[in-house]
Each structure stands twice: as structure tokens, then as C-alpha cells.
Amino acid sequence: MHALFKKYWLFPAILLVVLIASNLGGKGSWVREYHVITIGIFLAFFVTGLSLDTSYLNLRDLPAKAAMAAIVSSLVLIPLLSWVLASRIFPLEFIIGVCIIATAPVSIVSGTVMTAIGRGNIPFSILICLLGNCVGIFTIPFSLQLLVGGAGNLELPVLKMLASLVTTVLVPIILGKLAQPALKAAIERYKGAFSVFQQCIVLLIIFNAFALSGAKIGAAGKMLPGLIAFIVGLHSLILLLNYGICRVIRLDRPSTTAFTIHTSQKTLTVSYLVWAGCFAAQYPLSLIPGIIYHLTQMVMGTFVAERFKELSFRHECDSPAS
Predict the structure, then answer these.
(1) Rounded to whole angstroms, how far apart are CA atoms 175 and 168?
(2) pTM of the entire predicted model
(3) Residue 3 — pLDDT band, cuts 50, 70, 90?
(4) Is position 101 within any domain?
(5) How far apart are CA 309 and CA 187, in angstroms?
């Protein structure tokens, strides 16, 4: 029982946070107003830089064309697909929310962890992560302006958004990487604590979103089941899209695992920064699609990784060498 709770503690914690935040009547906005989460996100990305192991990242042995295909899929195809589908179903607030998470870069930790579970190409997964986040923070402001800027006459502060993403995401990763040699022993000792800290940042983001929009969530409650079904369907389509791309460019099995899983993942922390800086006041519900997507990719990603793991074992059993 203890081992089960240790593995899945985040899900009951999310439920508890949602219940508490939804009954605060908007009194939880201090988390955003005092930049508690922004500071936490900065530290989380610093920790990411500290623990990011690129020592065995040999670019000559990695599929460079496939990495570029992953960037195109993550930052061009997925946002377009998400916008086309959402704009035909939902009101503006949820369209904005779907586009915020769709334009976000790939997740940093979970995508590589799930690639490892699926016995995929981990160096390729790390390459997708590095390229996706370095490129993504520069494309997000322009992509959002293109997709939702015309709706409701939104005038997004593109340069301000860009500066915020660079200073809160890219800079701490670089600083963490620079500090990595000096703190190598501490990294190994506190690796478990780092993971818990990053999950707590996710809990704070969910708390802030529901505390700020509790009353509006009640009014929009009838739409939430449809939104959940939409996000699950969207993530399924994205997984199929990325798997199809792998088949077209003829990736091997481990690289297909990395591409399919990691390119389909999106980071909630970066989505929060965009939401808090540009949309929270006018469209408080627009982070809800991102939260649902985050939970969906956690659950579905685990099942997909296990499926790739089974296929890997089956391939090894069927190979002549076995």
C-alpha cells in the first residue's frame, strides 16, 4: 500500500488541491500576485539544468532529420491541429487554453522517463527535449498571436512574453547546467527530493488556476466533461500523428518510442507562465485545458510506454539472435 501511494500520490494530491482551491472564492490569487509560482518555476528549471545528463549525447549517432521532424510536429502541426479542432467546438476562453498548451514545448522530465520505460532511445529523447524547449520559448508568443490574436481583438505582448520565457525557463536551465560539475554529489543525494519539488510546483499551478476561476468553473461545469473528452481525443490523435510520422521517415523501434511519446508531451509550467502573464485576468479558465492535458498525458503516456515495452520484448524474442 505504501509503495502504491508513493508511486501515485500526485493524483489524490491534485484532487485535494482542486477541492480546497475551488472553495476559496478567489482568495488564492496571492500565489500568482506574489510570484510564488514564478519563483518556483525558475528554481524547478534550475534543478532541471542541474540534473540534465547530456554526457552521452553524441549528435553523430542521433537521427538529426527526425529531431527536426519532432520540432515541426510539436511546434507547428500540433498547435494547428489543436486550434482547428477546438475552434469548431468551444468558446474563446477554452480555445485560448487549448492553444496555450498546444504551443508549449515538450515536457522535460516525464517524456524522457516514459521513453526509458518504453525501452526507447533516451539520447534521442533528450535531444527532442533540448531542441523543443530552446526553440519553443521563442515560437510561443508568435504562434499564439497567429492562432488566437485575431479572436476577440487580442493584442498579445509578444516581446514581453518572450523575455519572460527566456528569463524564467532558458536562463535557469543554463545556470543549472553550469553549476552541475560543482554540485554533482548533491544532485545524486537529493534526486528524489528534486522530483517531489517539481511535482509540488504542478500542484501550486493547479491550485492557482482553480482558486482564481472557482466561480466560473461552477458556471462552466456542464462543459467540463466535453472538454475532458476533447483533450483525451486530441492527445490520442497527437500520439497517432507522431507515430505516423515515425513510419513515414522510417525510424527504428527505439527512436519511434522516443519520438511518439516525447513529441506528444507538453509542459504545464511553461503554459502557466504564458497564462499568468497574458490571460489569467481576462480568461481565468484558459489554463484548465492545459491541466487536463497534463493529467491525460501522464496516464496515457504510461500506457503507451508499457505498450512499447511489450513490443520491445516481443521483438527481442522473435529476433534470430535470441
Answers:
(1) 11
(2) 0.86
(3) low
(4) yes
(5) 28
